[in-house]
Amino acid sequence: MAIRNVALKTKAPDGPAHVKSGGGIELYLKRIFALMFGAVAVTALAAYITMATPLWTVLFTATGLSAVYYILLFGGLALAIWAQVRAFSFKPSTGALMLFLYAILTGIVMTPLLLVAVTNNPLTILSAFVISALMFACMALFGYKTVKDLSFLGIFLFMGMIGLILVGLASFIWPAIVGGTFGTIVCFIGILVFALFTAYDMQNLKRAYAVLGGDGAQKNQLAVLGALHLYISFIAMFQYLLNLLNRN
């Protein structure tokens, strides 16, 4: 599961964004993607260390997932929400630290899904990652380049995300709910929702850069928030794809 705000706190102007070319926005986007892919790398490392050491055993009991797993899961979700709400109150370095802490927690709680993939077919992990990376790149480029206003997607994406979260919570109580055809449909919806979120966020980040003007401090804060949003979308797409590839 992934929880995130739909809109960035900086209000964007109506209509298509007009951003001057130059080194400014390129540097801003490089900062965002450096943070985002750094967080993805931290998640991969945390997951690998958890699976390669006895740490993974604390996530399970004889009958299923342990209390430690749920504490880490919901603790990570609470951290993600708090980091987004307080994004413009933190120093950029503090925001980045919280992003990487959330990435570590995400890597740990992804371990059960990854262990299933390793048991069934380890190549599905690589396949899910490559497909997610390609989808992310295409949707991010679309969101950055399109002149079409994507703000209308906000409410629909929010509703879709809430629905996915509710299904995820229900699956802890009734695991069978995500089995069969319904589970496959949920995976496809999850992939679609977070792919669209990627384009939506890229357009918002581009517009917000134009609104902030010369405010370097807020741009750095926004870069951390944008990296968190894009990280959540990428990881969510990867998880839904990996789940889909291992449904049998």
Report on the architecture of this protein:
The two termini are 21 Å apart. Helix 2 runs antiparallel to helix 3 and helix 5 (123-145) crosses helix 8. The chain has helices at residues 23-52, 67-85, 92-109, 111-120, 123-145, 153-173, 180-212, 216-245. The protein is 74% helix and 0% strand. It is mainly α and 248 residues long. The protein has one domain.
Key attributes of the depicted protein:
248 residues; mainly alpha; 8 helices; 74% helix; globular
Radius of gyration: 18 Å
Strand residue percentage: under 5%
Helix tally? 8
Largest sheet, in brief, is: none
Number of strands: 0
**Topology pattern, helix = H, strand = E:** HHHHHHHH
- State the shape: globular
On the 0-100 scale, what is the average pLDDT?
Answer: 87
Helix fraction by DSSP (H/I, runs of at least 4): over 70%
Derived from helix and strand composition plus strand pairing, the structural class reads mainly alpha
| Low-confidence sequence ranges | 9-22
The CA-CA distance between the termini, in Å, is 21 Å
**Number of separate domains:** 1
Regarding quaternary structure, what we see is: single chain
